[in-house]
Amino acid sequence: MSSAISRFFLLAASVTPALGFCGARTHLDRRAEGEEVPVSTFGYTGTVGPLLWSQLDTAANGLCSTGSNQSPINMVEGQFKLVSACDVELDIPDATEGATFENLGSTVEVVMKEVGGTFVLEGKNYTLEQFHFHHPSEHLDDGVSMPMEMHMVFTTEAEEIAVIGVYVDLVDSPTVLQLHLHPRSAPSTLLETIFSSIGDIATPGTSTKTKPLVMSELVTQLKAGSFQRYSGSLTTPPCSEGVAWSVSTEKLRLSKSTYQAVRDVVGFNSRYPQNNLGEQNLLAMASGAAAPSNSTAARRRWAM
Ligand SMILES: [Zn+2]
């Protein structure tokens, strides 16, 4: 699981920044304190969009167009293993001093490496690096696109990656009675606090500091649900595989006015749903390298 990612980091370390290796500018990029916020060279539309990510750097991003375990996917039965979250070891301390919130151009991201957070998965200890947002959601919730999706990125010391995905849905101003009956239908205090600073990072390359973040609200909510687990990939270049995904069945809520403010900054940053896990990459199929008529899986689907 870790070999592809390890190869990527080895490769990234061997290429000088002067070559403009765009794979080094991913959501996982680590940099020194005080360094400027890097603006991503990949995008989501036109010639820098996901159909051509592999051509932005053919040496690094090949899996974007050839990988057969790519993310995101349509989260339907058979694609994931459902695991109750109540027994999962997930601890994230509150960011009592706030956290850095930055605009990478490709997403807006809360940097958590100073704060930390632990996620234990199959005996491996992962540490929270950052969380960022996609608009609209990248995974589909049983065929349904959600307004946004949060990705919490964890890594091990060996650079193995686990991501918790959390859908974000919208909520109208709930009445007191509705909140009493369904407390989780209220807007997420965590998200509303983070996004109250979105206006400060409207321009790619800028950063700010959030107000103190209470992470326990999020952890408690995640533990009340289940995780849909599967092994997939980064949803951004270099599309490395072996990423341990846990998509929560619990959704966070956001008020419409906050959503609109975030949408106007983030724009569109969602990779299209990939083929079923283990099946040919859709770009390879589209180029004729793997004709659908030769695919047993495709025939099976079409016969349904
Ligand atoms: Zn993401």
UniProtKB/TrEMBL annotation:
Q: Where do the Alpha-carbonic anhydrase domain residues begin and end? A: 40-302
Tell me any Pfam family this protein matches.
Carb_anhydrase
Q: Which family does it belong to?
A: Belongs to the alpha-carbonic anhydrase family.
Query: What's its catalytic activity?
Result: hydrogencarbonate + H(+) = CO2 + H2O
Q: Which of UniProt's keywords are assigned here?
A: Lyase, Metal-binding, Signal, Zinc
Give the top-rank taxon of the lineage listed in the UniProt record for this protein: Eukaryota
Secretion signal: which residues?
1-20
Q: What name has this protein been given in UniProt?
A: carbonic anhydrase
> What EC number(s) has UniProt assigned to this enzyme?
4.2.1.1
Query: Which species is this record about?
Result: Daldinia eschscholtzii
| Bilayer-spanning residue ranges | none
